[in-house]
Specification:
The chain has about 210 residues and is of the alpha+beta class. Helices cover about 20% and strands about 45% of the residues.
Length: about 210
């Protein structure tokens, strides 16, 4: 479950930092509009529904939650059973199922990919193509397909549904090397909403078992 949540975080940051290589003219224009919108925003918040499909087992998992971002390295992801919070230096991962909270340094914790890392990883490794207009959750969108330039990339394809009236990403689908698919529906999207000073900090209650990995 933790890896799936990190997948959401990576995908959102991927959208924010993506630079298209050899994109067609229309796709390149839309990508620039997306970048301008997200990079000029101090904060981002969205409710999400994530559907993960495993090809090998023909199983589907669905989870819902909310993601908050501030700046380059602060984030919070909350679902029914898990909470992940980072203030940019420390990351807290609380599991409701185990009633445990793991504490780790962001730079050494497993599965963490910060915005700068994503930028380096995805920069110039995907080509964007404009596919056409298609509705997502009832909203008129423009559909882009971002295809990896190399067969070695774990995420081989990312499909974006971008609002036709605004450059806001409404739906994201990513397909990996194993043909597994993750689809994210984003709703309740807000930009530049101020957060409390300690919003990206977590203090476990006394009843929670704390495991400090630092």
């Amino acid at each position: 479950m933790k890896r799936i949540l990190w997948g959401l975080l990576m995908t959102v940051f991927f959208v924010v930092n993506f630079t298209a290589l050899r994109a067609d003219v229309k796709a390149d224009k839309i990508v620039k509009q997306i970048l301008a919108k997200y990079k000029n925003s101090k904060t981002f918040k969205a409710d999400f529904e994530q559907t993960y499909y495993w090809v090998l087992t023909d199983n589907t998992a669905v989870q819902r939650g909310t993601i908050w971002l501030e700046g380059k390295d602060k984030f919070k992801i909350q679902t029914e059973n898990q909470l992940i919070v980072s203030d940019g230096k420390t990351v807290w991962t609380y599991s409701k199922n185990t009633n445990q909270a793991l504490i780790d340094n962001v730079q050494k914790a497993e599965d963490i990919t910060l915005p700068g890392d994503v930028m380096l990883r995805f920069l110039d490794k995907y080509r964007a193509t404009y596919i056409g207009e298609e509705r997502a959750d009832g909203i008129a969108c423009q559909r882009l397909e971002l295809t990896a330039n190399s067969g070695d990339q774990f995420i081989q394809k990312v499909i974006l549904w971008v609002g036709k009236k605004d450059p806001i990403v409404r739906q994201i689908e990513q397909i990996d090397l194993n043909k597994n698919t993750s689809t994210y529906h984003l709703k309740g999207i807000e930009f530049d909403t101020p957060f409390a000073k300690d919003f990206f900090h977590y203090s476990p209650p006394d009843s929670v078992e704390v495991i400090d990995m630092r």
